[in-house]
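Batch 3, record 17
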Amino acid sequence: MTKPIRVALLGCGTVGTQVVRLMAEQSRDLEARVGAPLELVGIAVRRPERHPDVPQDLLTTDAQALIDSDIDVVVEVIGGIDPVQGWLERALEAGTSVVSANKVLIAEAGAALHDIAERSGADLYYEAAVAGAIPILRPLSESLSGDRINRVIGIVNGTTNFILSRMDETGSSFAEALAEATDLGYAEADPTADVDGFDAASKAAILAGLAFHTPVVASDVYREGISNVTAADVASADEMGCTIKLLTICERVGEPGDEAVAVRVHPAMLPRSHPLAGVGDAFNAVFVEADAAGPLMFYGKGAGGAPTASAVLGDLVAAARNKVAHSLGAAVPRYAELPVRPMGKTPTRYHISLDVTDRAGVLAQVAQAFADNGVSISTVRQEGRGSDAKLVIVTHIAPDEALAETVEKLRGSEIVHDVLSVMRVEGKVQ
Amino acid sequence: MTKPIRVALLGCGTVGTQVVRLMAEQSRDLEARVGAPLELVGIAVRRPERHPDVPQDLLTTDAQALIDSDIDVVVEVIGGIDPVQGWLERALEAGTSVVSANKVLIAEAGAALHDIAERSGADLYYEAAVAGAIPILRPLSESLSGDRINRVIGIVNGTTNFILSRMDETGSSFAEALAEATDLGYAEADPTADVDGFDAASKAAILAGLAFHTPVVASDVYREGISNVTAADVASADEMGCTIKLLTICERVGEPGDEAVAVRVHPAMLPRSHPLAGVGDAFNAVFVEADAAGPLMFYGKGAGGAPTASAVLGDLVAAARNKVAHSLGAAVPRYAELPVRPMGKTPTRYHISLDVTDRAGVLAQVAQAFADNGVSISTVRQEGRGSDAKLVIVTHIAPDEALAETVEKLRGSEIVHDVLSVMRVEGKVQ
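Prediction for the assembled complex:
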């Protein structure tokens, strides 16, 4: 019989439990696909008594000793930086391949971990870290490796997408929709990582790094969450035939010779005709634009134990196959070393709804405020409302700071009674 | 300098021309990703004078001599079985890796070619053979290799999708929509391969083989084209909130212990709410259902020179990387050896519109015809039309032959004046 591939599992929460189940249920299929049996040697957890549903003899509290016990592939589903980073570095240094679902660690230390993996001849895979079950990292780094990717736009956080979908459907406030998400288990007790965009920012860094062959970390990512999105914003979007999504946008910007990458996470109005606009509830989708391939979209479940475990097992099979064949998966070249463009210099478009004094010359004054900042206006809609008027303005593309400064100037203007809604816009809107 | 990877290109039509262009334009990026420069050593074509736009010194009419000139990767974009199969077999036997966009050959001889590749330690990749630019084969065989795929439903032929989209939008006949597709260059002068479903059947065989780890060839695929789809079918579909698509369906059928695969290509009614229903014009999409991952969808351009070349180059980079690393990509295990279930025994559902005599007892007689064949009815809608009535019936799932026999029996019945529309149904309809 072929020598088994020895697997250590670090962590046994929602995802880990499913990994254990699927490894057992599909052991014969996995063996046929790998070319050797997969042997789960141990499961490192902090409190074994909390894990009654997995084989008890596999549980250990000593992750380090488990990693050191002649393991071929370490599967990590704990999350966070410490103490996981040290464990995975030590595993990779010993030539043990690593499969991780840890977006925070990969976004922070992915480049360093890849360096160790490359030096010691180990694989490092983390498909589960971005968009759960959706195969997106392998397509980006392998299928599209002969193409030039220009943009990756994704909905990669299910919690915020659920909240925004509810606000869109019911007209509810952010607080109401968040409460509903918490009740249904879509939002955690402390929802900060999701609603403030930290989770999406980690995923953005990973996507941008692979798409543009350049090192990007989470702190390079401009990040704005959804807690300031109001029912008025949602209504304004609807009037324009748009919906609001928390978008993860990674793009090449600048002219040849002055190329950079811009990576950002923020809510944005998106026309309902855009393929991403129909992605509802806790689903995820990633839209990719490449020179030769054109537009591509990948859609599926972005979270949950079984979907995430599917991605983990796909990586585990790949790492195990390579161990059997004494080969290695594709490296992740970061040769491009493109600089990261700060948000202020990144080209965006704004939608701005203003409550203004309804008298002749007001539009001219407002338009002048845009012109002063070098911002060109795409469309204006003016609606009289008694002594006030409502102005709905969509700009052309301009540096984000010029747009933000224009909004600040308008806020301070005596003719502007209220700024009703300010929201960036993606895609073609009327 | 690292030794270059020597590449031979067989064929230089729409796709080949783009491969040459992209290899030249992106040579520095490709070199960085591969870890060695890619050197295009020669382009084998039948008539060099027809290719004024590629470097003339690379053109040769002697494909065999080119393949034999110490090549690392052969890229084949000619298509068809002869003489290509012999060339690719000889290349693989010599340990030369092969990248092919040839769906006909892979559907017919993929297993044999993989056997040679495995014996001689060469790679065989063909992402471009199915759904153009959409990364679908690598996700199926690698990303989902730890999961159990139950179903793959795709729109993988752009010509027929364009024709059906036009029929749906304008109410035109098949002949009119085909003429429009021909005028616009979406259909070839001889459209048989597309409209009769041969192209989709080849792709179905490739998808099923990878999804179910089982050998499937094009002749295993049940195939029905779109030339019999009428404006009446399209109108009937619309009344049910459906559109008609030429679907490629690969699925596991049967109980454990009696498992099989069913692979079929035929037009079907699909509810407009289904993710595939919105795939218009010449776009392709593939919907995958897996046990743990749940539903996944992949969307993009299914044909055209540049999109297909993107997929070819992705494979070329993978094969070249492996040459540099002296390693091999994942094998394509076909261990499952599941039998292919004939269409008659495959579970399907029908929509049937009948023009019947409008008198008491007719519905009972029609219902009895279904019952006699063991077919259970899901919904019936009855509309009086003067002395006639129209019956619109949607069945529950039954073996296809039981449904087909019921239709035949109804055709011969004296109470049925006319069979207005018969169409299989996928997804949930009312």
